[in-house]
Design brief:
The chain is largely without helices or strands. It has a domain of 32 residues. Helices cover 14% and strands 12% of the residues. The chain contains 1 helix and 2 strands. Strands 1-2 form a two-stranded antiparallel ribbon. β1 and β2 form a beta hairpin. The longest helix has 11 residues. The radius of gyration is 32 Å and the shape is rod-shaped.
């Protein structure tokens, strides 16, 4: 954006510093404006909120089947 347009935007929207956010609805009306501390970026018109599913801290290993032969042997020289 060129400097002339920036100055026009600053005057029209009333901001003095960047970053500055302007959130519009579908009709082009300002819903939110301000700094990152003033604007709730989780509440933007038309933006679908993602469902948050917490990830498990660990995933158990799949069961392992082990065949163990338990046979008792005594050698002849024992």
């Amino acid at each position: 954006m060129d400097s002339v347009s920036k100055e026009k935007a600053k005057a029209a929207l009333g901001f003095r510093q960047v970053p500055f956010y302007v959130i519009l609805n579908e009709q082009g009306e300002i819903q939110q404006k301000g700094s990152s501390k003033q604007v709730d970026l989780t509440d933007i018109p038309g933006l679908k909120k993602a469902e948050v599913h917490p990830k498990p801290l660990f995933r158990p290993a799949s069961p392992i089947s082990v065949n163990i032969s338990r046979e008792f042997c005594i050698e002849d020289d024992f």
